[in-house]
Each structure stands twice: as C-alpha cells, then as structure tokens.
User: Which sequence fits this backbone?
C-alpha cells in the first residue's frame, strides 16, 4: 500500500509541487507526484522508515500558499519504485521559503545577510532570467562562477538542486551603497549587515532609500512621505492586526509565499492620517526587502511605505549592483470571505503554460504566447529568440509592427473573455458575460467564437454640459444649480470638454469632489461606506448602449441634494452591479448559455463584486484562476481566438 498526500490548489504553477518533491528526494523515499484537476497528489512508499520524518519536514518547511485550499491523506494500492523528479523549465518571482529565510538569519550560514539568497523554487529568480531555455548561461549570473559549495548544492539532491542562479557571499556579486558624499561596498556578512543598518537608520530619519531589489528598483520611506502610488509594507507580523482590519484569508495571503499586494482597511489613526482609510499593503518578500525590514524592526518600526521605481528615482541613498534585473508588475489579489482572484499583475502568473496547443501566436502588453515543447508558453517577449506560428494575433494598439504575414488584430475585451474560457476548458460550451475596465462590453461565446453583443462605448466629454442640460425636461435647472452651488466642479467639467474622450470615472470623481480623480479614488471612497444599502444611480441604456450622460446627471442630482460622497460612491457600484446582472440574465435567457464569465480589472471592487455575487448566486460567475482578470490575461486568450 502507498501513503497518499493530496494538496488542493487553484494554481497550475509547479513551485509547490517541486518543493515537496525536493524534500521527498532529500529523504530518499520512492514516490510518485502528479497534478490532477486542482490537486497535487504525492504517493509515498509507505514501507520507508523515514516516511514520518519526511512528512513532518514537509509540514514544517512547505511554504504557505494563498492558492492552497486544503489537504487530505489516505492509503492506495501499489508501491512507488523510484524517486520523483522536478520539472523546472522556467523561474518565477516568489517570496522566500522558510528554509531560505532561516538561512539568511543564521550567523553560521554562508548566506547570513546575503540578499540574493533563494532556492530552485523560491525568491526572485525570474528577475535574473534573460532567455529560454532556463539555464545559468541565460541568466544575469552567467558571469559569476559558483564556488565549490554552491556547485555541490546544484549537483546534489535538495532544494537547490539544478538551481541555476545559486550563489553565496563567496561567489556572489558585491552591492554598493551611495549618497552624494560617499560610496561603500558590501561583499560579506558583516558589510551587508552594516549596509542594511545604515539604510534602516536613514529611513528612520525621514530619508528616501532607493534599492535595486531582486524584483527591480523600489524606493522605501516612512508613511508620512506616502503618495497615491505608495504601498504599505507591514514589517512586524505579530502586529499586523493591530494596524489592519483583516479577515483570516487576507492575513494568510499577506504571509504566503506569493506575497501579493492586498487592498486593506486601516484601523490605526496615525496610519489613516498618512495613507487614508484603505490602502494597498504587503509583507516583505525578497531578500533585500526582508533584510531591510529586519533592521527597521530592530529600530522599533512596524511599517513603512514603498513604491516601484527606476534607477533615476530621486532618493537620498541608493543601494545598487551590476547584475541586470527584469521587473514584473506585482500581483494584486482580491479577497472576500467567499472568493479570491488576481486583480492585476504579472508576478507569479508569468511565465506559465497551458493546453491545448495552438498554432496561433499572440502578442499583448509586451507578453507573448506561443507553442513551446508541446504546450502554450507565456512570458515577456524579450525572453524568446524566435517563434513559429501559422497566425499571429496582436492586441489592438500594439499592432504597429508587422510580425507575420498572417497577422490579425484582437481586442482586449474578447481576448480577456477567451482567456477565462481557456482556463476553465470551456471550448465548445456557450458562455455569456461582461468585460469591465473603464468601459463595459457584454460578450457571448457561441461555442466557436466570441461575439460582442453590447460593445464598449468610449465616454466623450465633448459637449458634456450641453448634453446634460438637454437630457430631459428640467435638466437645465440642474446644471444651473451645479454652476451656482458647486462652481469648482462645474469649471472642471467644463475643462474636460476640451479633452474629448476621457475616462468616465474621472468625470465621476470630479462630480464627487474627490482629490484622487480616478476610478481608484471612487473605489476608495466607496470602501468607507458602512451602511446596509445605497440609492439607485441611473444606469439606463440608450440606443442599446450605456448612457453616460444620464449616469453623471443622476450623480449630480444626488450631490446637489446633499447625499454624501461616501454613500454616492458605494451606490454607484451597487447600481452598476444590478445593471450588469440584469443584462447578463437577459443574455442568458436569449442564448441559453449556462456559464457566466466576468473579466476586467474593475470587477476587483468589493462593492461591485459583492452585489453581483448576490444577484448571480444561482449561477456563480467564472473568473481567471492563474492569471489576472485585467489586461494581462489578453495574451492567453489571444492564442485561442
């Protein structure tokens, strides 16, 4: 009989599976490892005397993952007769696993305070990846020869087996710390620790520190210097819930190996004064950030802020090194008590692979999807030297260059919609749904192709005020009152008319009087609402399309009536949720489609998504599982259009 361990996961990436395999190999236990419909299945030789110790090691060392949902174990017929092997065909950017984190804080380790520490299945490996196939010669570490100890690890069973960028203080690269007056180098444990101590003290003195991390450049500073692009970096795990209002799933996700960014509610008054009632937040992920956080915590600091940057970002101190690093957009995760999905970002999702194989190649947002070793492989374009295809689909707006004689344009909404069909393997099955990012389009997959039933309609601000005046009887008085009682809002709307096509939510935020005149501003305002229900905003359709003028006029009317912006912002998304749900149900009735699909970044909104969940509870909508519901998924859908 074999002992079987099952780990249930929503991700198709292999890092968790490979990590378990490496631990199994360390104990020399024969086993079989497989993926099967959202389950990682490990069948062990139950007669091996080290099985219990191996299982305990897995429980202790296995990184927590926000994609792991539960585990099972049972007995099954048969006995495995060989060690399992890893498939490590591409790198990812992940947080550090427990073993690597332990190593960088162990004074006896040759990686003590070494910020490039990682293993074959964790850390910022992707940042140093240059091209396929994934080998050391195709990474930024190609110029650094591993020392004898690192070479032994690469060729021995363990978590650094075949680790293509394996290094330590002895064979790694030096890092320099610079300001306007001086420059110092770190290349051993003592000098690295001093470097991070100096950087932490500078931040504590209200200075900005720019660091080239293994995920790319980041600038770190105290939260009193925060801006709209800042992310709150929680440093002290024991005090996270002292500052943030989190559900259990959010807390677990922050500390997971994926280290996503979450949009969270704040409950500390000082933090709220610096960053608002809600903000993007994360926990330290890669080596540089973790070591900086350790020194900050030593100074009694529980949190700071940071933002993605480039080498020219203004800062008081720069920590840099000579290796080339590839940046990826961070993964932003949406979580409520019922569901989680990736709202946006590339990290953890790319590189990736999916089946079935297609002879079509797709290009979108500097990402490419192409046939590679009998799978469809997706990654940044510069990592592929060449690719073959019978047809190339290029995202509209990215199609200025001619890549292929049989090149066709694709649209973001249809490509995103198709990506959900591909992930859920719904080829040949009718589906209806919505893509919502700035504007909404309603789509139908007739089991063969994606059809736009109600296409997107760009909002044009030209003649906006006149259109609002003539919307219906009495609308002229509404605009007169707006001009009289809210002259600043009126003037801003007037100035928008010169710009023509703009984002609808910019106009919405202006009417609401928000400082952040974007969709983000309206979303953050809606999250402040603590009531039980909103008011109905006009979401009527005119000529089979969403009526922008009626929508904005409705908001103006409520604003003049004294309704607070918090209530209005919440009501906007509640009303949009009803609008989307009603049209989807109508489409379902007409097409007989059983599956509902949602995609587009704007669905990562608690007020909107909760309303749709409630309205469509009998037919829960499907979303992307491994990819962002936003723009990044287009490259996946493109190969199947």
Assistant:
């Amino acid at each position: 009989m074999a002992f079987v361990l099952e780990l249930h996961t929503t991700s198709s990436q292999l890092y968790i599976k490979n990590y378990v395999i490496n631990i199994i190999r360390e104990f020399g236990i024969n086993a079989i490892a497989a993926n099967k419909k959202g389950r990682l299945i490990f069948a062990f030789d139950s007669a091996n005397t080290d099985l219990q110790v191996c299982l305990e090691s897995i429980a202790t060392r296995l990184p927590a993952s926000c994609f792991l949902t539960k585990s099972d174990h049972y007995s099954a017929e048969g006995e495995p007769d060989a060690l399992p092997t890893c498939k490590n065909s591409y790198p990812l950017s992940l947080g550090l696993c427990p073993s690597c984190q332990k190593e960088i804080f162990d004074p006896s380790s040759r990686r003590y305070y070494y910020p490039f520490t990682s293993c074959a299945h964790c850390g910022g490996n992707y940042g140093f990846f240059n091209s396929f196939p994934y080998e050391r010669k195709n990474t930024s570490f190609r110029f650094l020869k591993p020392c004898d100890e690192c070479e032994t690890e690469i060729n021995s069973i363990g978590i650094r087996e075949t680790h293509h960028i394996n290094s330590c203080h002895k064979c790694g690269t030096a890092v320099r710390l610079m300001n306007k007056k001086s420059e110092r180098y770190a290349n051993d444990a003592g000098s690295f620790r001093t470097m991070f101590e100096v950087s932490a003290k500078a931040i504590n003195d209200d200075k900005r520190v720019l660091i080239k991390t293994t995920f790319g450049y980041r600038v770190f500073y105290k939260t009193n210097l925060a801006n709209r692009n800042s992310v709150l970096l929680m440093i002290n795990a024991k005090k996270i819930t002292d500052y943030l209002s989190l559900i259990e799933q959010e807390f677990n996700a922050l500390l997971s190996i994926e280290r996503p960014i979450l949009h969270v509610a704040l409950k500390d008054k000082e933090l709220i004064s610096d960053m608002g009632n809600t903000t993007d937040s994360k926990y330290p992920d890669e080596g540089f950030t973790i070591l900086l956080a350790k020194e900050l915590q030593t100074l009694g600091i529980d949190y700071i802020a940071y933002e993605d940057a480039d080498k020219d970002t203004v800062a008081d101190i720069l920590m840099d090194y000579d290796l080339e690093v590839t940046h990826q957009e961070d993964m932003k995760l949406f979580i409520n008590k019922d569901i989680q999905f990736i709202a946006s970002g590339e990290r953890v999702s790319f590189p990736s692979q999916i089946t079935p194989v297609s002879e079509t190649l797709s290009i979108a947002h500097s990402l490419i999807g192409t046939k590679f070793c009998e799978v469809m492989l997706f990654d940044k374009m510069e990592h592929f030297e060449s690719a073959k295809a019978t047809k190339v689909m290029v995202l509209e707006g990215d199609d200025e260059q001619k890549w292929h004689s049989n090149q066709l344009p694709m649209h973001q909404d249809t490509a995103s919609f198709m990506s959900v069909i591909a992930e859920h393997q719904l080829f040949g099955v009718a589906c209806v749904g919505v893509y919502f990012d700035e504007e909404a389009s309603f789509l139908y997959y007739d089991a063969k192709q994606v059809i736009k039933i109600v296409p997107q309609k760009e909002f044009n601000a030209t003649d906006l005020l006149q259109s609002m005046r003539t919307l219906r009887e009495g609308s002229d008085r509404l605009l007169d009152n707006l001009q009289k009682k809210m002259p600043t809002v009126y003037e801003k709307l007037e100035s928008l008319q010169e710009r023509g096509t703009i984002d609808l939510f910019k106009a919405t935020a202006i009417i609401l009087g928000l400082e952040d005149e974007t969709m983000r501003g309206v979303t953050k305002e809606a999250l402040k609402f603590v009531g039980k229900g909103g008011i109905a905003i006009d979401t009527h359709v005119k000529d089979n399309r969403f009526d922008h003028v009626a929508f904005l006029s409705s908001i103006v009317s409520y604003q003049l009536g004294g309704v607070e912006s918090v209530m209005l912002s919440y009501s906007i998304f509640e009303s949009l949720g009803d609008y989307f749900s009603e049209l989807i149900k109508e489409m379902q009735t007409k097409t007989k489609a059983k599956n509902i699909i949602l995609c587009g970044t704007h669905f990562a909104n608690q007020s909107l998504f909760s309303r749709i969940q409630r309205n469509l509870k009998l037919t829960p909508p499907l979303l992307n599982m491994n990819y962002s519901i936003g723009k990044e998924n287009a490259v996946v859908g493109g190969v199947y259009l």
